[in-house]
Amino acid sequence: MGKRTRRVHNTAENQNIHSSNIRPLYRDGGWDPLGTEDAKRERKYIRKIKPQSDNQAQLIKAIEDHNVILSVGPAGTGKTYIAVAKAVEALDAGEVSKIMLCRPAVEAGENLGYLPGAVDEKLAPYLRPLYDALADRMGLKNLKKYLHDGTIEIAPVAYMRGRTLNNAFIVVDEAQNCTYGQIKMLLTRLGWQSTMVMTGDPAQTDLLDGLSGLADISERLSTLDDVSVIRLADRDIVRHPLVAAMLQVI
C-alpha cells in the first residue's frame, strides 16, 4: 500500500514540474475528445465525404449525375463506403424515400440456409460491411429506426425478381458474386427517380470460373452515355499501404 501511495504522489509532483511545458491540443472551442453531447456526436454523421483520389472524385460525380453506376476495382478503394455515403446524403436531402441494400450471400462455400433465423437475420453477416458504413454515416440510433420502419430495406438477390424500385437508392455490393443473369435482373429493377450503384471486384469472385457476370456487363454498359462505369485501381486504395502492395503480387 505504501508503494502505491508514493507512486501517486510522485506522479502528481511530476505533473506539477512539467505542467509549464504542456500545451493544449484542442483550442478555440473545437473538437473535444471527451465531448459527449448528442449534437457533437451526431454532427459527424451528416458531413459530406471527401474523395481521396481522382478516381474517387469521379465516382462521387458519377453518382450525382447518373442513375446507374458501376464501381469496379480492388478491395479497399472505397467503393462500398462512397456508395453508402451518397445513399445517406440522398435520403437526408429528400431525393429518395428509401435505401435498398442488396448483396449476394456467397461466401467461401458457406450455405445461407444453414444460418439461424429469418431472412434478414441470415443475411446480417453478409451485410455487416454495409451496416458498418451506414452506422458511420447516420449513427446507430438512426440506422435501427430506419431498419425498423422500412426506410432501409435488406433484400437478397433472389428476392429482387419482379420488383420495381421507385424513388430509391439501391446499393448492390459484392456484385462480382452475381452471375450475368442476376446482374441483368438487378439492373432492370430500376424505377423512376432512383439511383443504383453496383460495386465489385471481378478479381475476387467466389463463384466458379466463368460464372461472374460483372466484368462482362461492365464492358457492355460502358458504351452507354447514360450509364457510368468507374474503374478504380491500386493507387485508390485507402486501407493500409500493404493492401496495395500485396494485391500487386498475389
List keywords for this structure.
250 residues; alpha/beta; 6-stranded parallel β-sheet; 9 helices; 41% helix; 12% strand; disordered N terminus
Structural class call reads: alpha/beta
Q: Rounded to an integer, what's the Rg over CA atoms?
A: 23 Å
Number of helices: 9
H-E string: HHHEHEHHEEHEHEH
Overall form: globular
Q: Calculate the mean pLDDT score and round it.
A: 79
Main sheet record: 6 strands, parallel
Spatial arrangement of strands, main beta sheet: 3-2-4-5-1-6
Helix content: 40-55%
Low-confidence stretches: 1-43
Number of strands: 6
Proportion of strand residues:
5-15%
Question: What do these coordinates show?
Answer:
By secondary structure, this protein is an alpha/beta fold. Helix content is 41%, strand content 12%. The protein has nine helices and six strands. Strand 4, helix 7 (180-187) and strand 5 form a beta-alpha-beta unit. Helix 3 runs parallel beside helix 4 (79-92), helix 4 crosses helix 5 and helix 5 (119-138) packs across helix 6 (140-149). The protein is globular and about 45 Å long. The chain starts with a helix and ends with a helix.
